[in-house]
Structure formats: structure tokens, C-alpha cells
Amino acid sequence: SGTLGGTTNAMNLTVVGDYFKAPFQNTLNFTSASMSVIMAGQAPQSFEAVDDVRDLKINNPTSVTLENSFRVLSDLALLSSGTTYVEGDVTVAAALTIPAGHTLVIKNGGSLLASAALTVNGTLKVEAGGELRVANGITITVSSTGTLQLQGASGNPARLSSANASSFFTLNMN
User: Fold this and answer.
1) What are 31-53's pLDDT values in tens digits?
2) Phi and psi dihedrals of 48, rounded to 5?
3) What mean pLDDT comes out for the span 98-119?
4) Count of Cβ atoms closer than 10 Å to residue 114 Cβ
5) Full-prediction pTM beyond 0.85?
6) Distance of CA 11 to the CA centre of its chain
7) Taking a C-beta distance cutoff of 8 angstroms, is the pair 71, 91 a contact?
8) C-alpha angle with apex 110: 84 to 74, nearest 5 degrees?
9) Which long-range contacts (CB under 8 A, 24 or more apart) does 61-66 make?
10) What's the whole-number mean pLDDT along residues 61-76?
């Protein structure tokens, strides 16, 4: 146990093993404006955190599971083919692009809050019980190569919703 912190600019923590775990509050303290956690394994990985993360880069050609609830204060970068699973409540502050060849799956009980533009060039699946929430005034763009799938079930819908009752968003399908 302990605390992982950083104040140096351009610092990267590259994870090539099975998992990154910081499951308790105040165990991550990244104050640098350019601190990145890079999930770069070659087999399935899990990322388990509850503290804010500045930048999270997914560079794993198989899969990465995002567990727990946390905020990505800057970039969630999906850099490779493969699949990212969202099982907790994840908030992304910057624009998010799902590249061609990548699949992002919001699992039952999971949610993703897009606080900035969301572009789908790959596949975005919201499974039964999952939710894609969109901040006020944000645009979701699904390109001609992209797919948006809402895979609800009877009594257990997949949800695409605004962040709150007074918010709106735009959905562009190309």
C-alpha cells in the first residue's frame, strides 16, 4: 500500500502486466499537467482506480477493462485496435474518439459521461443496463465507418441520455 504521486512534466507510467490497481481514495496524486497512465499489455488488462487520472492511454491490442468510478481529467486516448470495457462510472473531460478497429463497450451497471465531443469511427456498444451520458451541448458524431449499438433487453434498457433533465446533445449519423 502507499501513494503514487508525480509532479514532473511528461511523466508516463506504462503498465504491461495484467492490471493497474489503486482501489482506495487518495492513492493517486498526479499534479502534472502531462502525466499519463498507459495500458500497453499484450494480453487482457484491467485498470482499477477511484482517484482522478490526468491522461489514460489504451494501447493494448486485446482488451482493457475500466473498473470502479473515476474521472479522466484530460485525454482518454484509444490508440490501438482491441476492446475497452467500461464497468464503473467513467467521466471523460476532453473530446473522445473511438478509432476504426476499436470497440468500446459500456457494460451492465457501467456508464460513460462524455463531457466533450464524442466521435465514433469504430464501434460503441451500450449493453443492457449500461448508459452513455452526454454533457450539455455536446455532439456525438458516428462516421460512415462507425457503429453505435444500443443493446438493451426487456426490462433492462441500454441508455443514451443527456447528463441531466435540462441538458441537450446532438447526434450526427454519417
Assistant:
1) 556 788 999 999 999 999 998 88
2) -125, 110
3) 98
4) 23
5) yes
6) 21
7) yes
8) 60
9) 64/39, 66/90
10) 95
